[in-house]
Amino acid sequence: MTGRLVVVGHGPAAHRLVDALRERDSADRWQITVVGEETRTAYDRVALTSYLTEGADLGYPAHDESVTVRTGERVTAIDRAARTVTTDAGEALPYDALVLATGSVPFVPPVPGAEHAFVYRTIEDLDALRVAAGSGDLTMSRPRAGVVVGGGLLGLEAARALQGLDMDTHVVEVAPWLMPRQLDEGGGAMLRRHIEALGMSVHTGVGLERVEPGAVRLAGDVVLDADVVVFSAGIRPRDDLARAAGLAVGQRGGIVVDDTCRTDDPHVFAIGECALIGGMVYGLVGPCFTMAEVVADRLLDGEARFTGADLSTQLKLMGVDVASFGDPSADALDVIYTDPVAGIYKRLVVSDDAQTLLGGVLVGDASSYPTLRAYVGAKLPGTPEQALFGGTEAAGAALPESTIICSCNNVTAGTIRCAIAEDELTDVPAVKACTKAGTGCGSCVPLVKKIFDAELTAAGIEVSKALCEHFDHSRAELFDIIRVRGVTTFSQLITEHGRGRGCDICKPAVASILASLGNGHILDGEQAGLQDTNDRFLANMQKNGTYSVVPRIPGGEITPERLIVIGEVAQEFGLYTKITGGQRIDLFGARVEQLPQIWKRLIDAGFESGHAYGKALRTVKSCVGSTWCRYGVQDSVGLAIRLELRYRGLRAPHKIKSAVSGCARECAEAQSKDFGIIATEKGWNLYVAGNGGMRPRHADLFAGDLDEETLVRYIDRFLMFYIRTADRLQRTASWLESLDGGLDYLREVVIEDSLGICDELDAAMERHVAGYSDEWRAILDDPEKMRRFVSFVNAPETPDPSIAFEPERDQIKPVTVEVTP
Amino acid sequence: MTEICEAPAPAGTGTLTATRWTPVCDYDDLQPERGVCALVDGRQVAIFRTYDGDLYALSSHDPFSGANVLAWGIVGSRGGMPTVASPMYKQVFDLTTGRCLDDPTVSVPTFRIRRIGGRVEVAAS
Ligand code: SRM
Ligand SMILES: Cc1cc2nc3c(=O)[nH]c(=O)nc-3n(C[C@H](O)[C@H](O)[C@H](O)COP(=O)(O)OP(=O)(O)OC[C@H]3O[C@@H](n4cnc5c(N)ncnc54)[C@H](O)[C@@H]3O)c2cc1C
Ligand code: SF4
Ligand code: FES
Q: How far is the CA of A613 from the centre of ligand 1 (A)?
């Protein structure tokens, strides 16, 4: 028997309902008609702002052809006795089941002049807003001004969008702080600073009195210029149809439904933002989707129930990290961390025994949001403090089955694991396509990836471990093979333990391992052919095939005489010079055959290789320290130089950076380094596994108040342990995050010698220090190697004729070359 | 492929093409799996000696960056085929055909190369 299903509204909830039903209704039990008032079919309202900022196409995929979607048509009445709905096109549509998915409308406060204001809900609203923002009097002396009334999630999003339309933007919030529904006072205050730093003005604790032409008047006679006013002061469920049809609605709006989303008429359901379920109207898309799934299931005689929903949210504003998860207002133990300098405010609410996470807010740094959100209601794996500082970056394997990983789509860890196993999914995009996890706001994707990795590891699938098609081993395994069996050449290694002739992945990895274990010069014998782009000529290749030269300047300290030499060399060879971010000087535009001549000049003046080309120690940056600085408590320059000289030339899975600051003001940015040292009154604090770059990470405090010898010993071991066990091209930051047991484990290995390898690590570092010699000097001393620094084997004197420069700002730059692939 | 000596032109039939071979270096100058670049008739030719001793010559012009750097790439193999990876953005090229294995729409010219006694010669035209 076929039933007629009529769905009123075509927003996200309706779309999901129809999709879910079509997917499962293999017997075609339901003939579906959707009536939507907007002129277009359903679209991703959550991403609405990107329509304004990037012109994004938000449309959801069309339903299959059996579904009738009537757009631009509004349902005006329900006749429950006759089981029909009437539309403004004058049609009466019969139904066996009716689903109201009418969503909500922005609340417009009843103030004089409100009719001149805009709202921020539909694509049409945004089109109108854009027109208003772009029109008007261009001769005006002040920039055009926009005022958003409402400082919640949506209000801030709208305000940022107005700013993007070149408006001078104000946010007015009647509550004493921003995002009052999610944030406490401390978080609100911190958020305000971030918003103001973006250039918006914030007015809190003040109500709106009236909208006037070109202005708004606030309480207390404050008048703000306002060419455009946007109301974003909450939403009201669209329950008028239901109300007129005699269905129960809540006191503050919302169509009353039970936990199967049924109204008091068994033929009528309500889902999404128009529904009042369990006493709540949900303003987030996740619960709306869940309700849609429940009704799809019920229409096919299933047993699904709505059991409440996750209210976690994240503000979608570029440059401002704000997230709230669970119930941040729960009455239990509060753990608060505030860093006014970095603009960070984090608050966790945990059960009284400090074991179970109830909720929390993050402002300024929401990187742990996906993980923390997943732990809401569950036992934390560590202390709340550890959770706050990323200590819960637990392997995906640790998360309980029922944990909701994706709250947009209500997908649990169990569902993801099941899909990976049953459908034999082989990558994260497949997991997303199959489970829908990560296809909403996207904030859960990192966690989905972790679960995916953990599952494959558990299943014994070695997808990620094999270095490449030539070796089935991980880098750490190859390191052990090479170390324990005393392998000294790539050919021996690949013959005995691999296949083929290698590639640009395994060759540099093996080259780096051989170099870490001390196998002579990196351009000796067969090693020469293993080296990656920059190591091949001991210089960094530039976009036009020229090279750059970076002499070492330990700790950034340099005499005027040496500075002059660098200037002279640059002048003589016509090189572009630039101060680097690593406190030294880069000389660009050298041709292969010039490199030895340039280095001869530099080495004669006492310079040596800076290894800017190697996956090796780069620089140990330093602040000025106690010698000159009136706040310094230790000689940071002296220590930086000592460390840079100790670890220079040390090759590693990836580059290694360090810095030493002379006091807690941290001018050397040591906490962004692979190992960073900050002076204390009593000695040195050692931080490890920081990273700038693509995925910045603050270093973790490893040990405090160390004397210099202990400090050096810990760094020696830390580095050698990293070199032995990290993956190829894995910086210390992600190495530590992937290390089972994390920071505590690392401390056990390095401080307590839990693996009994510290003697070996110490000895390896001593060998490195004793065996160091300048790579570039070795080139100059070896005519055979020198012979390879030519552009053409058959014309050693001839420079590459295709290289050309043109002037820019009094120096050279490469002439842009045509690229034709 | 290595041509140890030139095949004799078949007598009587077919077309005879004249090839100008340019000597570029000694065979022993070439380290296995470490390319060099030669300037031949104004063209920059990347020359590789593989581990087995075979010789290959391709244009050193990297079509993805526009720089003449393919000679400085890492030599290896993919699925048994000898390859070089561009040092600039790491696309891999088949040494036998010049085809880019990461983007089949792209390829670089290959040249004939041979070993005559201790010398290596390239035909760039
Ligand atoms: C020259 C310099 C920029 C500048 O003019 O300031 C620079 C230039 C390059 N950086 Fe850098 N980085 C430079 C400081 C930095 C810094 C800042 C610092 O060290 O204090 C960072 C962020 C800090 C960090 O690494 O944690 C930085 C993060 C990166 C990254 C991202 C690393 C990451 O973990 O995400 C790469 C890419 C990579 O290594 O894979 C990169 C790669 C590169 C390369 C090597 C790209 C390449 O493969 O050729 C650039 C080489 C240019 C050249 O040929 O000389 N560069 N790079 C800086 C050299 C410092 C030095 O004296 O050695
Ligand atoms: C700018 C913005 C950003 C947002 N960001 C997030 C976010 O980051 N995370 C999050 O979880 N949520 C976010 N939301 C909220 C999310 O968009 C809503 O929860 C979701 O759209 C609710 O879906 P719905 O289908 O219930 O209602 P709606 O999306 O409101 O859809 C209802 C549809 O029904 C139509 N309709 C109403 N009455 C009738 C009628 N009588 N006849 C015919 N058609 C009718 C309406 O025109 C509308 O198209 C955001 C919302 C906005 C506006
Ligand atoms: S930031 Fe990018 S462009 Fe700038 S130097 Fe580093 S790698 Fe090059
Ligand atoms: S939580 Fe938004 S996509 Fe998963």
A: 10
pLDDT digits (tens, 9 = 90+) for A111-168: 999 999 999 999 999 999 988 887 655 555 667 899 999 999 899 999 999 988 889 9
pTM above 0.90, yes or no: no
Number of alpha carbons in the 13 Å side-chain half-sphere of residue A666: 16
CA distance A534 to chain B (A): 8
Taken in order of first residue, the domains within chain B and their CATH numbers are 4-8+19-124 (2.102.10.10)
Cα A58 to ligand 1 centre (Å): 37
Q: Note whether B92 contacts A: Cβ–Cβ < 8 A.
A: yes
Please tell me what DSSP assigns to residue B6: P
- Tokens 């310094």 sit on residue: A632
Task: Provide the token pair at A511.
Answer: 């080259």
Q: What DSSP assignment string belongs to B35-64?
A: -EEEEETTEEEEEEE-TTS-EEEEE-B-TT
Two tokens, residue B91: 């696309």
Rounded CA gap, A639 and A786, in Å? Answer: 35
Number of other residues whose CB lies within 10 A of the CB of residue A275: 32
List b or e across A786-802, with b for residues whose CB sees 16 or more CB atoms inside 10 angstroms.
Answer: eebbbbbbbeeeeebeb
Each residue of B70-110: pLDDT tens digit?
999 999 999 889 999 999 988 999 999 999 998 888 999 99
Helix (H) or strand (E) holding B84: strand B81-85
Question: Which two structure tokens, joined as six digits, stand for A326?
Answer: 């669970």
Q: Which of A499, A792, A800, A817 to mutate to test the interface with B (most CBs of B within 10 A)?
A: A792
Nearest ligand, CA A655: 1
* Distant-in-sequence, close-in-space partners of A212: CB < 8 Å, separation ≥ 6: A113, A223
